[in-house]
């Protein structure tokens, strides 16, 4: 299994300070915000971060304050560069010195009867790609779990493992939690997926009962080489999961040029297919918006909808509310509170980290 040569660094500069300083304590400086005890960042830069980048900064802040920590679950995934949905509530640490998993403020310490392979890159230790993927897929909502599995196996994303490795590790673990979700994810994971939006879209398309599309199909029309996200060959319909990242550029003229090029590409594709649908992340999360676009494009529905699976998109219980938390967020949970929802198998129980 290939290992990453580098981990994702902190998205902003973290300032480690001595809280015991007699004068000019960092918490009293208006331009700084506390990320965690003894670690600060420039307030404006902190508030400009996306939720998942705030979380990554929190992970690095804990690494600075607690050298030797072994990160797992979302914390390890963020360091690997895997998809993170919103800003997870807790930082996750693997520590077998404890008989049961428990919280200490916003840090969850996990133990398990099943060992975890770990790697160390620079000053940071974390679970390896296979362990991280299996643990996280077991723990998060299924559409997000599929995106994580895709990311770890896709050469265009992380490309750090393959489905047989993931399946073998999961089947060898004693933890029975969410085994059906794991098997569903391994069965549906696809290394051709190139983005989180594509992966989650694929899950929703399936749960809505539509025919399964082919991924990353190439067409050569009018002297151009076009590759589309989704293609339904039986009905000659193309689908595109839009992410504004592909239009990102510092130069406004460059952005305008990219938008024009994409419009010309879409017009060219439309001239050669029977139907075309384009959607964005919000359409997928609302479900009905994606449903309407697929229906209007003529994508055939071949099965009944799965309301129970679609309902899993409504919330992510492991994430903070979408509204940005105040700096220095602290969990209201008392230190060392036992956590029944840990996906890890506790050493003193056959029911624990998953």
UniProtKB/TrEMBL annotation:
It comes from the Bacteria. Residues 314-354 are annotated as: Disordered. Residues 345-354 have a biased composition (Polar residues). This is Transcriptional regulator, AbiEi antitoxin, Type IV TA system. It comes from Microbacterium allomyrinae. The lineage of its organism: Bacteria, Bacillati, Actinomycetota, Actinomycetes, Micrococcales.
């Amino acid at each position: 299994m290939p290992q990453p040569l580098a981990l994702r660094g902190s998205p902003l500069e973290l300032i480690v300070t001595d809280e015991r300083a007699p004068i000019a304590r960092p918490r009293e400086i208006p331009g700084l915000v506390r990320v965690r005890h003894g670690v600060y960042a420039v307030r404006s830069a902190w508030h400009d971060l996306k939720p998942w980048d705030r979380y990554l900064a929190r992970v690095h802040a804990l690494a600075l304050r607690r050298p030797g920590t072994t990160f797992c679950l979302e914390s390890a995934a963020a360091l690997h560069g895997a998809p993170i949905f919103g800003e997870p509530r807790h930082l996750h640490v693997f520590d077998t010195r404890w008989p049961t998993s428990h919280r200490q403020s916003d840090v969850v310490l996990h133990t398990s009867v099943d060992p975890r392979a770990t790697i160390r890159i620079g000053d940071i230790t974390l679970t390896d790609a296979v362990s991280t993927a299996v643990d996280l897929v077991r723990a998060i909502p299924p559409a997000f779990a599929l995106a994580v599995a895709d990311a770890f196996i896709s050469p265009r994303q992380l490309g750090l493992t393959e489905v047989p490795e993931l399946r073998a590790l999961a089947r060898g673990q004693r933890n029975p939690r969410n085994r059906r979700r794991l098997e569903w994810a391994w069965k549906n994971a696809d290394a051709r997926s190139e983005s989180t939006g594509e992966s989650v879209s694929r899950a929703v398309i399936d749960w809505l009962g539509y025919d399964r599309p082919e991924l990353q199909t190439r067409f050569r029309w009018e002297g151009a080489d076009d590759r589309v996200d989704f293609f339904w060959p039986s009905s000659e319909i193309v689908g595109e999961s839009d992410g504004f990242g592909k239009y990102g550029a510092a130069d406004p003229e460059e952005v305008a040029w990219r938008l024009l090029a994409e419009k010309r590409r879409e017009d060219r594709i439309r001239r050669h297919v029977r139907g075309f649908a384009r959607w964005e992340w919000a359409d997928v999360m609302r479900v009905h918006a994606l449903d309407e676009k697929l229906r209007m494009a003529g994508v055939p529905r071949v099965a009944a909808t799965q309301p129970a699976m679609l309902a899993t998109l409504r919330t992510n219980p492991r994430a903070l509310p979408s509204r940005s938390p105040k700096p220095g967020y602290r969990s209201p949970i008392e230190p060392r509170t036992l956590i029944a929802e840990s996906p890890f198998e506790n050493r003193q129980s056959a029911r624990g980290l998953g």
